[in-house]
Amino acid sequence: MWACGLLDEVSLKKIRDICVKANSDMELSTRFLDFPFHVSYKRSFYTDEYEKIFPGLKELIKEEGRIACGSVYLQRIGDMIWLRFEKEDGLKALHEKADHYLGKGYGIEIDPFDKTYVPHVTLFRDESEEKLDQMYEKLESQICVRDVWIERSFIGTKNRENIFFDMKREDK
Predict the structure, then answer these.
(1) Are 22 and 33 in contact (CB under 8 A)?
(2) Structure pTM?
(3) Minimal CA–CA distance to 57: which of 69, 47, 68, 70?
(4) Distance between CA 54 and CA 110 in Å, rounded?
(5) For residue 40, is it within any domain?
(6) pLDDT tens per residue, range 97-129
(7) 171 in a structural domain
(8) Number of domains comprising the chain
């Protein structure tokens, strides 16, 4: 099971267009560009209790409301290029609430990844250090997007379609 937030449509389109153009001669995998840019609220986990967990998790996410992420910037981590957020407090708070809800109510253990949670969107992943360095250099001066929001979320599992929903519209 997973729960993720989506970048607002304006930011998503702008960032995707920059990445597609920058990649036109690089030929890195577009796997991460081919579906909506998302921020995981919690590392994916296995459960047989999806039907029980879903309503409460959805409500917990909706109650958080739109999440202001501020400006975005690039970060190179290992074999990936990430999009990071200037404001991470709202995403980290939601992550902690989700961990608490799932742990207390359903015994879902906190994954080691969740202990060092870093809100991000993966843009590119490749084994070639050289290609990633080149792509990072190309994108670094171009990715300058301000006022990014998480306005929609989705929850899903491997065996079910993702269920998308809007977050409440109060600015937080």
Answers:
(1) no
(2) 0.88
(3) 47
(4) 18
(5) yes
(6) 999 999 999 999 888 888 889 999 999 999 999
(7) no
(8) 1
